[in-house]
Structure formats: C-alpha cells, structure tokens
Design brief:
Keywords: Membrane, Transmembrane, Transmembrane helix. The chain has 72 residues and is mostly helical. The chain has a domain of 47 residues. The chain has 2 helices and no strands. Helix 1 runs antiparallel to helix 2. The longest helix is centred in the N-terminal third of the chain and has 22 residues.
C-alpha cells in the first residue's frame, strides 16, 4: 500500500477527534450549524477505517466465476 492504506490509524484518530470536536461545537453553538452532520460523517469515516484495519492480512475470499447451482 502506497497511499492512504499506510496511514489508516492517523486517519481514524483524526476523524474521531473531528467528530468529537463537532459534537462539542454543536453543544456550544446550537443546532443550526450542521455540526451534527459533520460529526456523523467523521465517525462513519473513522469506523470504515477501523473495519479496513481489522481486515488487513486476511486472505481474500475465493471467487468462483460460475454461478452457483440452485438445484444442488
């Protein structure tokens, strides 16, 4: 991996911190600033990065090119 794959932990931490700051800002500023949307998006990116990190090193699933037989 030569791009974002090398830096998944920093991205995960950064997005979690950004989400936390957005929630803190939403509590301070009020609900009209779309900070809840920003927090949700940041937490979704952080969760996606954690899923990708947890699947590192796992073998890829075998993909059979022929369709499965429904009668078998």
């Amino acid at each position: 991996m030569s791009h974002i794959g090398q830096y998944l932990w920093p991205w995960t931490i950064a997005m979690a911190v950004l989400g936390g700051l957005a929630i803190f800002g939403r509590e301070r500023l009020g609900t009209g600033y779309h900070l809840g949307d920003l927090a949700a998006l940041a937490f979704m990116v952080a969760a996606t990065c954690m899923i990708v990190i947890s699947q590192r090193g796992m073998p890829r699933p075998v993909e059979d090119e022929r369709a499965p037989d429904a009668t078998a």
